[in-house]
Amino acid sequence: MKLGLVLRELHRSESELAHTLLVVADRHRVDHEVFHVARDLARWSQDHVRQIAAIAERYGESLDPDDGGEAGLLAALRDKGSEAMGRLREPGLLLLRDLRDVYLQASGVSVDWEMLGQTAQAIQHTDLLDVAERCRPQTLRQAGWANSKIKESSTQVLVT
Amino acid sequence: MAALDRIAEPWGSRTPYGPGERWPVRVDTHLAEGLGPDDVERWVPTASILHSNGDAIDIAVRDGRIVGVRGRAQDRVNHGRLGVKDLYGWQANASADRLTRPLVREDGRLVETDWDTAMGRVVGRAQALLEEQGPSAISFYTSGQLFAEEYYTLGVIAHGGIGTNHVDGNTRLCTATAAASLKESFGCDGQPGSYEDVDHADVIALFGHNVAETQSVLWMRMLDRLAGPNPPALVCVDPRLTPVARAATVHLAPRLGTNVALMNGLLHEILAHDWVDHAYVDAHTVGYDELAERVRDFPPEVVARICDVPADDLREAARVLGTAERLLSTVLQGFYQSHQATAAAVQVNNLHLVRGMLGRPGCGLLQMNGQPTAENNRECGADGDLAGFRNWSNADHVAELARIWNLEPMQIPHYSPPTHAMQMFRYAEEGSIRFMWVSATNPAVSLPELARMRSVLAQERLFLVVQDLFLTETAQLADVVLPAATWGEKTGTFTNADRTVHLSEKAVEPPGEARADLDIFLDFAHRMGLQDKDGGPLVTWHDPESAFEAWKECSRGRPCDYSGLTYDLLRERGGIQWPCTPERPDGTARLYEGGRFLAQPDYCESYGRDLLTGAPLEATEYTAMNPEGRAIIKAAEYVPPHEVPSDEHPLQLTTGRTLYHFHTRTKTGRAPELAAAAPDVWVEVSEHDAAAFGLAEGDLAEVATPRGRIEARVRVSGIRPGVLFVPFHYGYWDTAGGHEPSGAGRAANELTLTSWDPVSKQPIFKTAAASIRRVAAGDGTPAPAPTTTASAPLDDALPRTHGVASARALEDSPAGGAR
Description:
Number of helices of chain B: 27
Number of domains of chain B: 4
Number of helices of chain A: 5
Number of strands of chain A: 0
Distance between the termini of chain A: 53 Å
Largest interface: A-B, 31 and 30 residues
Strand content of chain B: 15-25%
CATH architecture of chain A: Up-down Bundle
Number of strands of chain B: 29
CATH class of chain A: Mainly Alpha
Radius of gyration of chain B: 25 Å
Structural class of chain B: alpha/beta
Strand content of chain A: under 5%
Oligomer: heterodimer
Largest sheet of chain B: 7 strands, mixed
Helix content of chain B: 25-40%
């Protein structure tokens, strides 16, 4: 059985998504809704990482529950840069690219959750299924948010 | 007839009544010094323009001047009563510093000019930008204080004529969450309840709604119920010891930013005790199971910890709400301007849905407005939504609107959600919006983080047009200033928070060359040559009544149906509640009688949004969830506020209003009785924090947040420990700084953070981390804060707020006099 492999991959992709959301938040501090919501959504991924690490032990995987954390000094530098860039037009394009990354990563994570959920159902591991059923809807909401922000922002960025 | 100092006694005398009885009449009058009712030549009907209650007023006219006001006894809203802002605020119309001529900026200074020159510059800039960049460069930021005819005209010009998506009003600050929460729960905007529900309710619950100060006549109605037989129980959620809190059966003062947790806790108890109308839930709603699952995590002990309220108080509040037979709930800024605004307001809707308490006398829900005409802004589409509560993501709705306006559907921008105010200012900051037309509002004082706001508005590359009565802080930054007529100087309709439409008639001429807002917009449309798809004029009306007829057609068949109304009917009958149609000529007291909702996928105004991320739902998702158009019970997770206290900023700051002022005091600051009652800014602190930070009544203190600092006199009040309150009314137009601080600032919004609810996009004015320190000891003079209101001092020995000599107003209670 390759469950451990799926869990490792999920752990990696959720950590990466949490990290991306934090980076995007920090980079777009002057786009206040992006900043705040991206940080709220990063917390979901961090929580998913903990849930994955907790259940992975049963499948012989030792995964770090605290992956996907704050970005530290680099982030602080990025904040300053973000504030300085607030008056430039190019950040709009950067925002679209970043939201596209979030959307694609979250979509990938949701597919991973789907695979895990399917497997858990087949082998009747209800605890694992519960985790997948709790987390996947949130992942879809993360993707939905990124998609909606792209829809909302792209016109102004691209026509001006 | 009695004469009363209404500054000292803001709610006047009691006229008690019992459940199901008619609220007795009491006619309030205030006339200029030395004049009596017999001196008045004409009484001209209108309604209140200084809050959202829609109190019917007759303006007293003598020698072509406004000389006073009188409440209209027959009107359904106020039964003759007037609040203090209306009793005295009318005097601002005749202020010597009204704008009387257009101004344009020359060599950095604003100079007087004529209308042709001013409008020529506006039109020239707009056309040049349309040519160079297109409609994405143009934005309109309007108000909650114009008339329906004006909003509708502006919406047609902006959406249909210019083709821009950048249209919003300051209603974004006051009422956006009311609209958003109604859309989430009922698929459509539209106030479910009626003020008459006060007459029938056995429980009235006020969620973040200091009705005593924001809608003082509605509070008089509640006070009269409380003074009569079988009074209702009151539940109050507010961090301040407001007049409502003092009168409440249960008062919950939660930690700022925890409203969703509190509401989930109350719903937890209501579901746990099965105070649920299952037949109603089964027949008329979707989503109950999700709510049950969500609130399971919020037992009283958990909520008590999150919100810092006693668990027993929570249980008691839930019991009162859960065992009510006729529950009326009202919601305002304590929820709307706070963290998770829409999610919290929606939980109040859920309370009524699970209890089956809608659409019957006493079973009402009032998601309130702050401003007098906010409702019209929402209906007419000047808040960015499409006119007539149409759904921008429903192609059929856009096509219908295009037919009404005789345009191609593609000419009406609907590719994405409308640009909300905060985003418009962001686009102006980054330089993609280059033209902003501000009408009847003052963002340089009312929006968050003023240092940032001033720097955005002052940019050379932004062409700023300001249309107002006075040279406000915002107008001082403008490139063109257009002098506008106001209430009493122009005609139009407006609609209050319980859907009551009033006709407001012109009583006197505006000063100098000032023009009605409608005439200014019509002039712009003509000068721009805005056309329909056949080359005819896009705007086909020419005066208030023809504009009203056009709006009526647009509203036909929609929830806010005005098709049964005419100016003549409104003259004859006074206030009438929409929907008013040929089939329902008397209007409609309550929406959703018998659980009949307007949430059908092909009819609803909105498919809803994710309550946490704000992402709009797709039509397919909505239809799958709610194919029959039932009410939607939407659960919400609690998330902590984005800015929490720290070592440096250990307190929480909330901002708000006082009874005696409206918005940025543009009018109330120019009425001597009101100005004297609350002359300057103050900061409220609890007794605990006063001791902890070495502060005493009347001390000068500095309040600081990561955005800025202000100085204000200290009022030690009954506010929740750990919380500071600063009123937001005080800007700089009557200070040396003009439009900005000179020395220490005093505008509350120097302190607030730029953050908003992702669903309603309403800015958060009530959840920030702050510090306070004493700058100088007081000299024994108390803070300039009223003692009659939520800012009442703990120290009873302080002198009470009272009126100047001219504050005496008449009260007439025909049914045997006031008791």
